[in-house]
Amino acid sequence: MKINKLIIIAGLGLLGVAIFFLFGFYNIAASDKHWKITEWGLAQVRDSSITRASADIVVPDNLDDPQYFVQAAGNYNAMCSSCHLAPNSDAGEQELRTGLYPQPPDFTQALSHDSARMFWVIKHGLKMTGMPAWGASHSDEATWKLVAFIRQLPTLDKKQYSELVAKYGGSHMPGGGHMPGGGHGDTSPHGEAAQGQSHSDGHSKNSPGKAEAMTQGHGSAENHENKATDTPKSKPHGHSAPH
User: Which residue has the higher pLDDT, 173 or 235?
Assistant: First the structure.
């Protein structure tokens, strides 16, 4: 008898939950924040998923090379600054960011970034957050340059950032990494497959954050960036700071 009562109570509970969600009683509006326990649960699911998915991504060894990361300045300004801010803007100026929930991280602040995790998130996006999957239209090479640029963003002031954006065009400029129509480029050694090789373009690794190195003496960005395959390689290395 006691077991039957428990079954009835459990059934009524499930029925109540179903009615709550299926008949519109749950407020889906972004202006109505989640309960704290819901936020915690979603964060755990998100972080666990990203950690597992990005575990085998091998990080290139030249992300701190100024001649490499500066090439993503235009892309960051066009694709990311409206949500994640830029040195020449503030949160109050970005209407898109103001209305987003959950609130995107502010990349102008010094944060602890895991490069492999960031690459995966930029490429694949995050469900129900407003974060798009840029890998649908951009190559792995362009995505790694974005990762490298975001790592250096807190070191840039307004003048340096504006100069880099003016010099290095965005997705629809030569070398921006855009693949028209979301098409598939040729394979490249720098993606979720065959990572770990150095981007050997003749540039040595230099100290980041120096305006002279970033804004002078560089040619235009590469004219061709190819998309890598999506099969991860084992033995990840590189940056492992917590996200």
Answer: 173
Mean pLDDT of all residues belonging to the chain = 77
H or E stretch covering 32: none
User: What is the count of structural domains for the chain?
Assistant: 1
In a domain, 206, yes or no: yes
Predicted TM-score (pTM) of the model is: 0.70
Cα–Cα distance between 134 and 182 in angstroms, integer?
10
Element holding 69 (H helix, E strand): helix 66-69
Do 190 and 119 form a contact (C-beta atoms < 8 A)? no
- C-alpha to C-alpha distance for 66 and 212, rounded to whole angstroms: 10
Whether 225 is covered by a domain: the verdict is no
105 within a domain of the structure (yes/no):
yes
Task: Evaluate whether 185 touches 222 at the Cβ level (below 8 Å).
Answer: no
Domain of residue 119 covers 47-215
